[in-house]
């Protein structure tokens, strides 16, 4: 029996020779040869041991993950070539005993093990000639822990952000309600109204945060539902501008440009409102000067028919090096508040509609966000 791994040919007696040498039928590379796939092309680490427990395959990804040279591993006993330990320091191959343990076992699920002080995700498959026969091949998959650590870090950041954002409004709500309950008679009606308005605003802030968390959960799991109805984008934009002016912004700060006629648009009106509200609020809060909203048909010949909306301001804009991170979680363009989740949700909503969103620099130098939504079809026809 021979096996070619990372340019090294290993025979049954452990002898090696350099250079390519195809494996015979039934060898560990037989399936790869049939599919035209080399073990070194696999994204995960692959280690294969024969029926005697000697390594016959050690691909390039395994070498990268373990920092072990393939030539130093191939032909050696598995326990010495890949000296894995569990978190308690016990030798993994002696603990699991793949060749001498229960004959009904089919493998080991993925778990975190130690290799020379580094953490490695390891899973194993026992290949037997018959269901309860001896192990003919031990196939081991190796993965680094970087992706899992990034996920864990993202979750930790999310928890920290939620805790920070909840603490302030809940402290305010608790403080004002406790004060009102204890000293109701001492306050005037105007003072009571002011405190209750503050409690109401902070409760709304908590509600928005919870809604954002639910949206993130649905986006990450692919469960964000889009209930398509006829949407008048012109009316929606004017409604959001009116809301901004009602909240105290100067009417002359907004410039609306309509490039009509617009195609019929079928989208989720609540989620379109969410996108428009977020982009306008960002332009008002983080930008300066006139906020321009341009609505028109999609003019890109490579795109399907649809409606595009561009929101731009005259502020300092977004640094070039930050534009690739704008739609990621927790990105903040300034220190003027916010959870850093809004644009991540906006991107998820637009993409759930089958649309696209981009960020760039406006003609006046500020930030420019442009999203486009395809015409699509109503929900009852989908």
Descriptive account of the structure:
- The protein is α+β, with helices and mostly antiparallel strands.
- It contains ten helices and 15 strands.
- Strands 5-4-8-7-6 form a five-stranded antiparallel beta sheet.
- Helix 9 packs antiparallel against helix 10.
- The protein is elongated and about 80 Å long.
Order of helices and strands: EEEHEEHHHHEEEHHEHEEHEEHEE
Distance between the termini: 57 Å
- Catalogue the unreliable spans: 1-31
Shape: elongated
Query: What value does the Rg take, in angstroms?
Result: 30 Å
Alpha plus pi helix count:
10
Major sheet: order of its strands?
5-4-8-7-6
The fraction of residues in strands falls at 15-25%
- Give the mean pLDDT: 84
Portion in helices: 25-40%
Class from helix and strand fractions: alpha+beta
How many β-strands, per DSSP? 15
* Major sheet: 5 strands, antiparallel
List keywords for this structure.
37% helix; 5-stranded mixed sheet; 382 residues; disordered N terminus; elongated; alpha+beta
Q: Quick gist of this model?
A:
The protein is an alpha+beta fold and 382 residues long.
Please specify the SSE layout and strand pairing.
Layout: E1 2-5, E2 8-11, E3 16-18, H1 30-35, E4 45-49, E5 55-58, H2 60-66, H3 70-73, H4 78-81, H5 92-96, E6 107-115, E7 118-128, E8 135-143, H6 146-183, H7 189-221, E9 229-230, H8 233-246, E10 254-258, E11 266-267, H9 269-286, E12 291-297, E13 306-312, H10 342-352, E14 356-361, E15 367-374
Parallel strand pairs: 10-12
Antiparallel strand pairs: 1-2, 2-3, 4-5, 4-8, 6-7, 7-8, 9-11, 12-13, 13-15, 14-15
Helix pairs in contact: 6-7, 7-10, 8-9, 9-10
């Amino acid at each position: 029996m021979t096996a070619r791994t990372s340019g090294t040919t290993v025979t049954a007696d452990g002898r090696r020779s350099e250079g390519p040498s195809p494996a015979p039928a039934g060898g560990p590379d037989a399936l790869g040869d049939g599919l035209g796939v080399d073990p070194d092309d696999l994204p995960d680490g692959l280690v294969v041991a024969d029926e005697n427990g000697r390594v016959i395959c050690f691909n390039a990804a395994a070498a990268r993950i373990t920092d072990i040279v393939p030539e130093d591993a191939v032909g050696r006993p598995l326990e010495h070539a890949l000296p894995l330990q569990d978190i308690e320091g016990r030798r993994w191959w002696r603990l699991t005993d793949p060749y001498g343990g229960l004959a009904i076992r089919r493998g080991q699920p993925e778990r975190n093990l130690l290799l020379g002080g580094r953490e490695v995700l390891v899973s194993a498959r026992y290949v037997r000639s018959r269901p309860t026969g001896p192990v003919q091949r031990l196939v081991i998959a190796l993965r680094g822990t970087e992706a899992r650590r990034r996920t864990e870090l993202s979750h930790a950041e999310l928890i920290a952000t939620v805790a920070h954002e909840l603490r302030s409004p809940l402290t305010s709500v608790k403080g004002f309600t406790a004060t009102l309950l204890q000293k109701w008679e001492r306050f005037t009606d105007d003072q009571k109204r002011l405190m209750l308005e503050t409690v109401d605003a902070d409760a709304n802030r908590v509600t928005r945060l919870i809604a954002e968390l639910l949206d993130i959960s649905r986006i990450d799991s692919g469960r964000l539902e889009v209930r398509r109805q006829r949407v008048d984008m012109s009316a929606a934009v004017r409604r959001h501008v009116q809301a901004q002016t009602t909240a105290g912004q100067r009417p002359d700060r907004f410039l609306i440009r309509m490039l009509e006629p617009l195609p019929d648009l079928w989208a989720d009106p609540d989620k379109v409102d969410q996108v428009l509200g977020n982009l306008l609020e960002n332009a008002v809060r983080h930008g300066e000067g006139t906020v321009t909203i341009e609505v028109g048909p999609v003019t890109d010949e490579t795109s399907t028919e649809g409606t595009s909306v561009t929101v731009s301001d005259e502020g300092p804009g977004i640094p070039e090096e930050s534009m690739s991170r704008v739609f990621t979680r927790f990105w903040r363009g300034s220190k003027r508040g916010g959870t850093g989740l809004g644009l991540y949700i906006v991107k998820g909503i637009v993409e759930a509609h089958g649309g696209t969103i981009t960020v760039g620099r406006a003609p006046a130098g500020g930030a420019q966000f442009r999203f486009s939504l395809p015409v699509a079809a109503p929900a009852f026809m989908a």
